[in-house]
Amino acid sequence: MPRKKVIKFILGIIFVFVFISLAVFVIVLKRNYVPPILMYHSITDQPVTTDMLTVSVGTFRSQMRFLKEHKYNVLPLEELAKLISQKKRIPARTLAITLDDGYRDNYLYAYPVLKEYNLPATIFIITGEVGRPGNDRLDWDEIKAMQSSGLISFGSHCLGAEPLVNLKSEQGVRQQVFESKRILEEKLGAGVNMFSYPEGLFNAKIKQMVIDAGYHLAVATNPGRQYSDDDVFLLKRLRISENARNLFVFWFESSGYYTFLKETKKK
User: Fold this and answer.
1) What is the pLDDT of residue 265?
2) 170-188 and 204-212 are packed helices; what angle lies between their axes, rounded to 10 degrees?
3) Disulfide-capable partner of 142 in 33, 79, 107, 111 (CB 3.0 to 4.6 Å)?
4) What CATH number did the domain enclosing 135 receive?
5) What is the pLDDT of residue 32?
6) Which whole-number Å values give the CA distances from 114 to 106, 108, 111, 120, in the listed order?
7) Residue 125: what pLDDT?
8) Which residues lie below 8 Å from residue 264, measured CB to CB, with a gap of 6+?
9) Tens of pLDDT, residues 15-46
10) What is the DSSP string of the chain?
11) Which residues in the chain land under pLDDT 70?
12) What's the domain range around 23?
């Protein structure tokens, strides 16, 4: 066979191999699509260096603008959880936004940006830290102001920040789960149906207690591949840090495939 034909034949085989590999990769990704739930904590007007739980307001604004300009379907968390529980096909570019702990900067910096782009979000409150001395946590007036906008919903992040798995008594865990819900409902005058495990840590008993308390959903961080992607009491989230000021990184992390790839890498 002439040399040119051999080269063409080899290139043809390589092309077919690459094409099939890409097709298989795309199919695997589609089957492992996890609707993105973005997790933020503190949004600051100060420079951010190494704190993985803090995002600058400039970065947050550019990320929210990206979602708006690229027509992402940003849903309230409870609405997204319903779609997940019903095992319905969720279109690409559908996601939810959450913020943990209840920092006052959520009101000062995140809330105005969310209002500007009309994007709903859920804030998980550590109820025992509301209005604490130091003025770094939300107070009840700020929480109610955001609630009245109809744009921000609230869930429980327990009475304190200690992971529930560290508590020695079942009664202590029960108080954190049940009492934080009662306080929030009393203060907000509305049902509180969403729960966030402190530091994303849980076990089977804690999860069942959250269900028994009457919550409709609970969020973790990334509990791992061994847990179902459609368990609404172990919803997987993506921590967004200042590293995602690069909008390509932000796009990749919020694509719906990042969770699968990260879990696969950890195996």
Assistant:
1) 61
2) 40
3) 107
4) 3.20.20.370
5) 64
6) 10, 11, 5, 7
7) 98
8) 225
9) 444 444 333 333 344 456 889 999 999 999 99
10) --HHHHHHHHHHHHHHHHHHHHHHHHHHHHHT----EEEE-EEESS--SS-TTEEEHHHHHHHHHHHHHTT-EE--HHHHHHHHHTT----TTEEEEEEEE-BTHIIIIIHHHHHHHT--EEEEE-GGGTT-TTS-B--HHHHHHHHHTTSEEEEE--SSSS-GGG-S-HHHHHHHHHHHHHHHHHHHTS---EEE-GGG---HHHHHHHHHTT-SEEE-S---TTS-TT-TTSB--EE--GGGGSHHHHHHHTSS-HHHHHHHHH-
11) 1-32, 265-267
12) 1-31
The answer on 156 and 90 residing in a single domain is: yes
Measured torsion, CA atoms of residues 97, 140, 194, 190, in degrees rounded to the nearest 10: -120
Both 20 and 47 in one domain: the answer is: no
- List Cα–Cα distances, 30 to 71, 80, 89, 227, 264, in angstroms: 20, 18, 11, 18, 15
0.85 exceeded by the pTM? Answer: yes
Same-domain status, 215 and 87? yes
Query: Do residues 102 and 3 share a domain?
Result: no
- ∠ CA 186-211-262 to the nearest 5 degrees? 110
